Amino acid sequence: MRATLMYGAGDVRVENVPDPTIQQPTDAVVRVLRSCVCGSDLWPYGAMPASEHGVRMGHEFLGVVEETGAEVSALTAGDLVVAPFVWSDNTCEFCREGLHTSCLHGGLWARDGIDGGQGEAVRVPQAQGTLVKLPVAEDSALLPSLLTLSDVFCTGHHCAVTAGVGPRTTVTVVGDGAVGLSAVLAAKRLGAEHIILMGRHKDRTDLGRDFGATDVVPERGEEGIERVRELTRGHGTHTVLECVGTLPALHMSIGAVRPGGTISRVGAPQYGEVPLGFPEFMNNITLTGGVAPARAYIEELLPDVLEGRIEPGRVFDHAVGLDEVPAGYRAMADREALKVLVKP
Amino acid sequence: MRATLMYGAGDVRVENVPDPTIQQPTDAVVRVLRSCVCGSDLWPYGAMPASEHGVRMGHEFLGVVEETGAEVSALTAGDLVVAPFVWSDNTCEFCREGLHTSCLHGGLWARDGIDGGQGEAVRVPQAQGTLVKLPVAEDSALLPSLLTLSDVFCTGHHCAVTAGVGPRTTVTVVGDGAVGLSAVLAAKRLGAEHIILMGRHKDRTDLGRDFGATDVVPERGEEGIERVRELTRGHGTHTVLECVGTLPALHMSIGAVRPGGTISRVGAPQYGEVPLGFPEFMNNITLTGGVAPARAYIEELLPDVLEGRIEPGRVFDHAVGLDEVPAGYRAMADREALKVLVKP
């Protein structure tokens, strides 16, 4: 089959790789219908050292079950399924607590002999725990929104949930990328009425307003913090959803949070130290969030997508075939595309 | 009156200062019955640059109301009261949310013209919001335990509450000082059944066991982390109560916390940066806690003290008169005393 590999910064290729087959009785093979490029794929795209063999790419996909192992009783060939961006058994003590990203028998896509999502097919380990059936047809117009349950919308939702967003909490979202916009939509869905979106790409912040942002702050740094404080009687917001992962974004989050408030971070941290010292201690600031256990949220969010109450798939503003994936990376890296859908 | 001043590291003196008087209609004057030395007083005691004029000391006290300003309707001369370690109006938006340490009209003792607790009397600003009446006599045997509601027990309680301690959470307490032991007692009171106390002073950890610790880990650093992991099937505990404030204590906390778990810190941070980078992000670790809004907890904790269900005053193992306060500091700094009670 054809699949995407990265050989170094800026070097993405689509190549022939071995067809996936059942290797464990808990496996399934899924033919990919839709995949996409993630903001986190852009970190290696910007900085990966050259590699002779390349690494497989992609961790978001939905598709059709083609074959199942002997222990996969709840899935049948032909089922349309979505895969969360971490595979898991859904039965261990961490999964039972909703922390599937720490599954004792789970792991990441596209490494250690596991296929990536940006290809024609995937061998899915722990298939019964990992995959969630979708009651739609292969040509459903809902596929883009359903695909966001794999990662980006669940990540925004995780950010809002761990921050404690609700009808009485004010919210700042830092970042107008696909995760930030998803966080706006998630906050709105959880009842937030005052959502400040920090971002300066008008087409993106316009979508953010559609998703529920009540204010947009294009300024950055101290100036951005000042603007958020002006909008909140000087205090900042109860919650800050940090959807970037850089130190400047974290600094803005700390500046924008209210005493007693919570910063939740879901952007993969490009830093090792967090500047939460004495002043933040005196203000009782909480830092939470982390990699989103998407699997824990899919069933809960699915009805809202199926019944059209939310349309998280609007973050896809660009679509490519499998052979055009390298161009898709380029478009996202150059900020010509917000998020790129892949149709193998 | 006589009061305690610090003139530099290791230089504590008891001197004559002006008697407190009513200055604002919201003031009260309280004659101090019991005060104490706080672990946080030891930070300047170890490092304060020499000062010509000295600074007033003490932020924990209980005493008898002697005089009240015109707007203090709920207190009368003769009332026995406890003061939380931050004064506050108890009516602003932060106080109403239980975050009295961020009161819009509050402040700290022993600075900016406000008396300290380690003296014969105190002018209490925002007296009606700050002081809580205690239904006991001046000679009550409960005074030491009631005094802990001023700071140390409420601080341990805040640590446990913000960490989310309950019957189903396992707990590690880092530090066997008075705050750490208070955190053990608070965790036990909140229903925790598995409480690991990290500390290596046997007399202190013995009191920790009395307070509810089920395991004691005297080892530190990587060895200490390893021991906690052995006690928790390799995973760490759901909550870690960081009651020291140093970077090594924080490192141990990060090593001892379970994926998806929470570190709560109540030791005043002696660091500016927190090492919560990519690995902790992948494990969904939360950092919470901060300076304890003691005022928010006093009414809730008071009945347990009055009815003898808890005895947090056992952290006082040493008592001095006002003139012996310098010796009290020395005893705590030399670890000869766990916590020093002051009887002016």
From TrEMBL, chains A, B:
Alcohol dehydrogenase-like N-terminal domain ranges (all copies): 25-135
Pfam families with a match to the protein in the record: ADH_N, ADH_zinc_N
CDD domains in the record: FDH_like_ADH3 (cd08287)
InterPro entries for the chain: ADH-like_C, ADH-like_N, GroES-like_sf, NAD(P)-bd_dom_sf
SUPFAM superfamilies with a match to the protein in the record: GroES-like (SSF50129), NAD(P)-binding Rossmann-fold domains (SSF51735)
Cofactors: Zn(2+)
Keywords: Metal-binding, Zinc
Matches recorded under Gene3D superfamilies: Medium-chain alcohol dehydrogenases, catalytic domain, NAD(P)-binding Rossmann-like Domain
One Gene Ontology term of the molecular function aspect: metal ion binding
PANTHER family, per database record: DEHYDROGENASE, ZINC-CONTAINING, PUTATIVE (AFU_ORTHOLOGUE AFUA_2G02810)-RELATED (PTHR42813:SF2), ZINC-TYPE ALCOHOL DEHYDROGENASE-LIKE (PTHR42813)
Record's protein name: IMP dehydrogenase
Organism, as annotated: Streptomyces diastatochromogenes
